[in-house]
Amino acid sequence: MIRVTRKYQFSASHRLHAPGLSASENAELYGKCNNPYGHGHNYEIEVSARGPVEERSGRALDPRVLDRLVEAQVLQAFDGKNLNVESAAFEDLVPTTENLAREIYRRLALQWTSAFPGQWPVLEKVRIAETPRNIFEVKEYGET
Amino acid sequence: MLITKRVEFSASHVCRNPLLTDGENEELFGAAANPYGHGHNYVIDVTVEGDPDPVTGMVLDLKKLKEVVNQEVIEPYDHRFLNREVAPFDHVVPTVENIAIDIWQRLAPHVAQQGIRLHGIRVYETPDLYVDYFGETG
Predict the structure, then answer these.
(1) How many domains does the structure of chain B reveal?
(2) Residue A144 included in any domain
(3) What pLDDT shows up at residue B138?
(4) Which pLDDT tens digit goes with each residue over A80-119?
(5) What's the ipTM?
(6) How far apart are CA A74 and CA A7, in angstroms?
(7) For residue B119, what are the domain limits?
(8) A59: which chain B residues are within 8 Å (Cβ-Cβ)?
(9) Is B66 within a domain?
């Protein structure tokens, strides 16, 4: 088995604000991230898949297929966007990078078998760096 | 405990399965099938596993690991056209997956001689694409 990892980047803005909390509670909890005008990041994501090396191609995964999947499911949805305003997933969910990581994993998992119809490769994990110093990893949707 | 040694080499390759036609290779590998070849700056992370020696405080002598990696990987791979100059890539497609497997096979016996276990090989073909191989059982 080989694990193949591909890196992608997108830039987006967000504001951390929990609707169930008061203004002062939000300000205390999220600090600068609660700025009502929002702020942005250059997100860097790593998508890892696992599978055996196919003899014909010498590959465990065709990076072009993964690129198309990530472009359609992740980059088009989030790149250059305001996550709070432009993404349905964050209408009722705070767009923390924890929740963003789960949403990206969910989107990839949902379309995975149409991109890779065989038994292999399988989606293994999504790693997302909000900044080079804050990094989040999801191995299976709902389980961090 | 895991310890990782990072090394680099530059090499050219062409992703082409000699059993397939030119058209099939182009469909399978795209631009990477260009018969003249193209190159990468490969970055290799060699990770070994072991317990620190109570006397030396070290898992292994990193200088020795560097010598082994230089001799078994850097010498044969650096500034070579992999398909033509490095076995087994005369008949195995030198994808980043197969390079990782080959490096594992070259290093595992030498690492075992030093009384420790090879844990994993990571090969970066570009900063945006890398693979991990943890041996046949990994």
Answers:
(1) 1
(2) no
(3) 74
(4) 999 999 999 999 999 999 999 999 999 999 999 999 999 9
(5) 0.91
(6) 12
(7) 2-12+42-133
(8) 93, 95, 97
(9) yes
Residue B33 lies in a domain: no
Domain membership flag for residue B37: no
Q: Is A8 on the interface with B (CB under 8 A)?
A: yes
Shortest CB distance from B93 goes to which of A3, A5, A57? Answer: A57
Strand A81-82 vs strand A2-14: parallel, antiparallel, or unpaired? Answer: parallel
Three-state DSSP string of A71-103: HHHHHHHHCCEEHHHHCHHHCCCCCCHHHHHHH
pLDDT cut 70: percent of chain A above it: 97
Distance from CA of A79 to the nearest CA of B (A): 18
Look up the domain containing A129 and give its range: 2-138
What is the pLDDT averaged over residues B17-21? 93
A51 part of a folded domain: yes
Residue B103 with chain A: CB contacts under 8 Å: none
Alpha carbon distance A4, B101 (integer Å): 13
Token pair 């964050």 is found at A90
Of residues A2, A8, A56, nearest to B97 (C-beta)? A2
Say yes or no for a CB contact (<8 Å) between A58 and B93.
yes
Cβ distance B130 to A1 less than 8 Å, yes or no, reads: no
Q: Please state the pTM of the whole predicted model.
A: 0.92
CATH number of the domain enclosing B104 = 3.30.479.10
Question: Do the domain assignments include residue B90?
Answer: yes
